[in-house]
Design goal:
- With about 90 residues, this protein is α+β, with helices and mostly antiparallel strands.
- It has one domain (about 1-90): Alpha-Beta Plaits (2-Layer Sandwich), CATH 3.30.70.
- Helices cover about 25% and strands about 40% of the residues.
- It has two helices and six strands; from the N terminus they run αβββββαβ.
- The strands form two sheets. Strands 1, 4, 5 and 6 form a four-stranded mixed beta sheet that branches. Strands 2-3 form a two-stranded antiparallel sheet.
- The chain is globular and about 35 Å long.
- It starts with a helix and ends with a strand.
Length: about 90
Amino acid sequence: MRLAATIAVAALATEGVSRLGSGIYAEAATYGAGEKVEGVVVKPGEVEVHVVLSYPLLAPVPELAEEVKQNVNPLAKGREVMVVVEDIEVGRG
């Protein structure tokens, strides 16, 4: 749970990220001890980070996703990091 929370903070600290996403077809979250971290899914070999970007974009979407990945990668404890850009929203961030 602590890993997911730490990753969430790092993803949100990335300039251009408005908020964490909640998942598109299934809820994207990590659960534990009566709480959850929305937008981060920690698996044995992978971490999924779901983000919503702010418009206007500071860079092309692939570059922003790569920035999120670079911020999260050192915290992932050897897991592969996958960034899912769920949406782009105007007026936040």
